[in-house]
Amino acid sequence: MWNISQVLNRAAPLSSLNVAFRGLSTTACLAKNKKSGVPKVTRFRTKPLTYEEAIPPSEMNVRKGWLSWNTSNLHGEKRIAETTFEDLFIRKFVFGTWHNSLASEVVIKRRHNMITLVFLVNMDRMLARQVYFLQGYTEELLTHWLKGPVKVELQTVNSREDVIFKKI
Amino acid sequence: MAALSRKRLTDIHKHLINGRTAAFARLFHSTRLNQQNEHSEQQEGEFRVFEIEGLKPVKTERFARRQKKKPPPPRFRSMATDQDWTDVWPTASTFKWSAVPFPVRQGFVENSSENEGVVPAKYANLELMKPPNFLHLTPAHVKKHCDALKKFCTAWPEGLETEEDCRHHFPVESVTSDYVFAAPSLRDDRARVASIKLNLSDLELDYHSRDKFIRLVGDRYNPDTDEVIFESDRCPLKSQNLEYVNFLLTAVYFESWKREGWEDQKELSDMESYFWDINASRKNMVSLLRTIKEADEKSPEADKGLGYLPSDVANEDAICQLEEVQQYKVAVEELFNEGENIETLNNYKAAVTKLLNLKSDAAV
Description:
The complex is a heterodimer of chains A (168) and B (364). With 168 residues, chain A is of the alpha/beta class. Chain A has helices spanning 4-8, 16-20, 51-54, 80-97, 128-146, and strands at 48-49, 68-69, 107-111, 114-118, 120-122, 150-152, 155-157, 166-167. In chain A, the strands form 3 sheets. Chain A has a 4-stranded mixed β-sheet. The two termini of chain A are 41 Å apart. Chain B is mainly alpha-helical and 364 residues long. The longest helix of chain B has 20 residues, at 238-257. The interface between A and B is large, with 49 and 31 residues.
């Protein structure tokens, strides 16, 4: 930290030049309170979280399991990029299709050419026949796009309260 | 009639003094009038009935909201204790909390703020639904599978009880791999690799062809296990590669039986190992024995001479066929081919002692 008065060895007049030499610290902030996948705590701890959301990514495979089960994740196997992109697409599609009634993340299991989607559906605002329709709709369209049978093995919950694990 | 009208007018007057009601009546004047018109058509009488809002409780007809069907109780509550589990869980499936009759919990709870300090139960537990389970592979399931598959099975052929029997009757072992993975396609280019494995001793070869075979196959032959492995991935299909390695084996076998003209030009330095018969050692040995024979004849001593030597030492091959010489030959070849160790050196010592008829005290 030095300023122009030290450089010029006399009292410098107050000017914009002087201010520019005040030596503000410009290092990037560490942002220790912002982490990927770790939700921020609210003031009165009112934000509900599911188990999946409550466990940070650092505890992956210790306290919670994977959301994508496939062989491309294994060492030396192929189709890594394709599988990852398809999983992303499936998640986006399911999120939009089951809008406002998805009570959990989508687990994507791949066995041979079969893709099994597992998620929880909140029956609060849904009728059984709507669920049946959307299930068939999801299976049919994804099967068409992904060139392999897609099976939806969903389970229902009565309200969103049932999946709340903690409040932060 | 007049009395009724008067009563109504007093009613109106009574309510008009309430300003709020008056304003309310004005606001909804038009609608009220319309309703009254419709009403009065059905009514008999001279005057219409003016109904003041809020005076009488109005009956509004409400459609009863359709009752939402309650979800049925979970299946495990109505399960018999002696049920057939294979009927409940016939195939591989995601964990269904309602169909699993045992209590199970999964998850990690750090403190009492999480899930009231209790490990999450099976209802709506995604952690239980994530991993593959083995509820479709219980002993009862396996027994059913075996019963179903039994009619497709045949008895194990006789004479192939042990590994050694199998190797003897089927000396060539072909190794191929299939790859199972999660993708829309079955194809995997790693599956094209094919190899065959056999023991060199199972092939009918003489010394020359065996030596030539080993030289031709190079590092495909493992001298420690006596195994030859041909592997190929040059063709796009597994069957093509398998045919190719079989062709390689056939070609190398018949090639190694051929003796080309240039093979006879093999010199001492080209030899794969030490052969006593073509080395200088044999000539030296013969000349040494001849010299000793000559000396023995000049000064015959009963116990010092080489008694095993024939009277005529002119025939070199006859000398080399003698037992003592053969033993020496084996000892020297071992010493060169296997290297120096206690065993070969002792053999060599014994052979030399016997060959030269050295006494034990002189030999030490």
